[in-house]
């Protein structure tokens, strides 16, 4: 076996290997990775003392000059308890880009409780080993699967935010109702299980998934108002021909509610199609109420408009 080298940055030298590796890990790397590249304990110390490397944690480093982005900080947190640690909870939700989860939330990771250490610089959830089927990567960062992430955040966020996260995951086809039910079945007794279970029970495998976060929010307002006859994702069909699909409908009164998320951004062709669709509904006697993000600030006004349209349509 060859001796451990403290080589300069020649082709495939230890420094070259670290440079290439760190480029795939947002600029950070661990002591064990440095050893695997062929660097001794003294070689690592010299690089830190000469400011070529900067120590982030006990056994985690970053190359001098590499920007410490949020991704880099998450990767460093995972490497600090490698190989079992991974981003989880709110950090995982932000990595998965679930709606409403800011990228400025404190870093959270999950790690095997058997490797517990005192005073880690990040929020750590010490757990039983997380199985492979609940582990994946997002932006090269180890992270809990989306279905596991939703289970983890269920006990930490408001029911409204949880609902939007579930709908977003289903809409993007990154999770399924059956998979989320499976997570619940093996979760046991823990915070958030009841809330998530109730949310999933309100859905079934055949229910259309809201097409946007705005649509989820509008649905919540209409459900809370308990307006009779509400149908989501309703197809208006005449003589066997589909005229339009509306976000929400009260078919008996011919009232439609559309969550209008600035669809004019889709381009002229989509704009023309929307106009033709709207005219077709009007010609059939439908009243269409458009709800925008701005309208969400006045939920009662939305309900009042719908109730007024329902009265006009039914009487």
Assign an overall shape: elongated
Backbone structural class: alpha+beta
Number of helices: 12
Q: Strand portion, in percent?
A: 15-25%
Count of the separate structural domains: 3
Strand order within the widest sheet?
A: 9-10-11-12
Query: Could you give the count of β-strands?
Result: 12
* Major β-sheet annotation: 4 strands, mixed
Query: Unreliable stretches, pLDDT < 50, 5 or more residues?
Result: 1-7
- In N-to-C order, the SSE pattern is HEHHEEHEHEEEEHHHHHEEEHEH
Average pLDDT confidence is 88
Helix content: 40-55%
Terminus-to-terminus distance: 91 Å
Rounded to the nearest angstrom, the radius of gyration is 26 Å
What does this structure look like?
By secondary structure, the chain is α+β, with helices and mostly antiparallel strands. The protein folds into 3 domains: 1-67, Arc Repressor Mutant, subunit A (Orthogonal Bundle); 69-203, no CATH class; 213-314, Endonuclease, Chain A (3-Layer(aba) Sandwich), CATH 3.40.960.10. 41% of the residues lie in helices and 19% in strands. It is built from 12 helices and 12 strands. It has helices spanning 14-23, 31-36, 41-49, 70-80, 89-95, 146-153, 159-171, 177-187, 193-201, 213-225, 268-283, 299-314; strands spanning 28-30, 53-57, 60-63, 86-87, 108-112, 123-127, 135-138, 141-144, 231-238, 241-250, 255-259, 287-291. Strand 11 (255-259), helix 11 and strand 12 form a beta-alpha-beta unit. Mean pLDDT is 88; it is low at 1-7.
């Amino acid at each position: 076996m060859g001796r451990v080298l403290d080589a300069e940055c020649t082709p495939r030298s230890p420094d070259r290997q670290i440079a290439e590796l760190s480029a795939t890990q947002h600029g950070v790397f661990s002591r064990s990775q440095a050893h695997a590249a062929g660097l001794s304990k003294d070689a690592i110390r010299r690089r830190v003392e000469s400011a070529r490397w900067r120590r982030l944690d006990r056994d985690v480093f970053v190359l001098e000059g590499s920007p410490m982005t949020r991704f880099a900080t998450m990767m460093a947190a995972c490497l600090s308890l490698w190989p079992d640690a991974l981003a989880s909870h709110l950090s995982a939700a932000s990595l998965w880009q679930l709606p409403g989860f800011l990228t400025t939330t404190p870093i959270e990771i999950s790690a095997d409780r058997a490797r517990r250490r005192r005073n880690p610089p990040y929020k750590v959830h010490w757990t039983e080993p997380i199985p492979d089927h609940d582990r994946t990567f997002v932006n090269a960062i180890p992270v809990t699967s989306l279905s596991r992430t939703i289970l983890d955040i269920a006990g930490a966020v408001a029911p409204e935010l949880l609902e939007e996260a579930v709908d977003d995951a289903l809409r993007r086809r990154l999770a399924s109702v059956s998979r989320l039910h499976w997570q619940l079945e093996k979760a046991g007794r823990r915070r958030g299980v009841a809330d998530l279970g109730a949310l999933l029970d309100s859905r079934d495998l055949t229910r259309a998934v809201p097409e946007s976060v705005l649509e989820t929010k509008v649905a919540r307002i209409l459900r809370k108002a308990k307006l009779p006859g509400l149908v989501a994702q309703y197809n208006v069909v005449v003589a066997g021909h589909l005229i339009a699909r509306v976000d929400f409908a009260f078919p008996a009164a011919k009232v439609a509610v559309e969550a209008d998320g600035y669809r004019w951004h889709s381009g002229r062709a989509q704009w023309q199609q929307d106009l033709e669709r709207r005219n077709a509904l009007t010609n059939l006697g439908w009243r269409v109420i458009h709800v925008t993000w701005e309208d969400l600030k006045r939920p009662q006004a939305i309900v009042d408009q719908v109730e007024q349209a329902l009265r006009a349509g039914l009487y």
